[in-house]
From TrEMBL:
To bacterial alkanal monooxygenase alpha and beta chains. SUPFAM superfamilies: Bacterial luciferase-like. Coiled coil: none annotated. It comes from Mucilaginibacter phyllosphaerae. This is Luciferase-like monooxygenase. Gene3D superfamilies: Luciferase-like domain. Pfam families: Bac_luciferase.
């Protein structure tokens, strides 16, 4: 058990730019700006986008572009990637893109890095072309990025302009113990994707903490975890709203992906017992309920895990209900009390 308290916790947003039924990606991006501006107002630390490709319901493929859009419409919240999938990009291009973002919005840009393609193998082939079968070394590519961002690289023949000499925090993202070992060995902050891959979360953060080596970037281990959040005025309302994310993840389980659907009164006629089990396993780290239930479960979770920061992702069909959920979640952490949305 940890001594960490809920009121000490930093809280942030992961946005997949989820497209709801009856809308377009253009609508989604406008809603993302609404959420980001609210998040800044109620004290969220950062607002991240995740790189995914060829998914009808997820519009965050051009991650760096969306980061620039949100950073331009806010003034202080940190904005970044959760994450950039390094096998899809040359480190130099990533350094130039994020160097540009950090030049435009100094002190506000984060660079979270993942080792997966963020898509299926056919789409990965389309992204990488002849590089599809090339060997990818995740730690080596991170070192390349650190080199491009360093002032000492000024004498190199290959330079990131802009990017060189800028302080852009690098995070290691993961959903397995392998990523934990990389983050620990390199002395970097670690973000775990337990919002869809909860299986190795506890094992991974233990490995990370036990093997962490202090670096010039970070002196002590720092763990951020991403979880699903559906908060509402009452537990029953939250459970109703959460049927949208359950249907959405059922599409992942069955391979029949769809735009985020509206909530339903019951899932009984939507899934079978095997689909339910698979979906609920993926959604193991989810906080669904009214303020009191969220507070109780969060307190227990923080005491058990000792995380430094929690990143909420909320797949909610109705835009105002989604905004309200983020407001309630912030209120629970900030004040351990509920306050109406104004």
């Amino acid at each position: 058990m940890s001594d960490n308290k809920l009121t000490d916790l930093k809280y942030s947003v992961l946005d997949l730019a989820t497209v709801v039924q009856g809308t377009t990606p253009a609508d989604t991006f406008k809603k993302s700006m609404d959420v980001a501006q609210l998040a800044e107002k109620v004290g969220y630390t950062r607002y991240w986008f995740a790189e995914h490709h060829s998914m009808a319901g997820v519009a965050s493929s051009a991650t760096a572009v969306l980061i620039g859009y949100i950073a331009g419409g806010t003034s202080k919240i940190r904005v970044g990637s959760g994450g950039i999938m390094l096998p899809n990009h040359a480190p130099l291009i990533v350094a130039e893109q994020f160097g540009t973002l950090a030049s435009l919005y100094p002190g506000r840009i984060d660079l979270g890095l993942g080792r997966a393609p963020g898509t299926d193998q056919v789409t990965a082939l389309a992204i990488r072309g002849e590089n599809f079968n090339a060997a990818h070394n995740f730690p080596r590519d991170i070192v390349k990025l650190q080199t491009y961002f360093s002032a000492e690289n000024a004498g190199s023949k290959v330079r990131a302009i802009p990017g060189e000499g800028l302080e852009i925090p690098i995070w290691v993202l993961g959903s397995s113990t392998d990523s934990a070992k990389v983050a620990a060995a390199m002395g970097l902050p670690y973000a775990f994707a337990s919002h869809f891959a909860p299986t190795y979360f506890m094992e991974a953060i233990k490995i990370y903490r036990d093997n962490f080596k202090p670096s010039e970037y970070l002196k002590e281990p720092y763990v951020m975890v991403c979880v699903n959040v559906v908060a509402a005025e009452t537990d029953s309302e939250a459970e109703y709203l959460a049927t949208s994310v359950k249907q959405f993840f059922m599409g992942v389980v069955t391979g029949k992906r769809q735009l985020l659907p509206p909530p339903v009164k019951t899932m009984d006629n939507v899934w079978n017992v095997f689909e339910e089990e698979a979906v609920m396993q993926m959604l193991a780290y989810s906080f669904v309920g009214g303020p009191d239930k969220i507070k109780t479960e969060l307190n227990s979770f923080v005491a058990q895990t000792g995380v430094n920061e929690i990143m909420a992702t909320s797949h909610i069909f109705d835009h105002q209900s989604r905004m309200y959920s983020y407001k309630v979640f912030a209120d629970v952490i900030r004040t351990a009390a509920y306050a109406p949305l104004v």
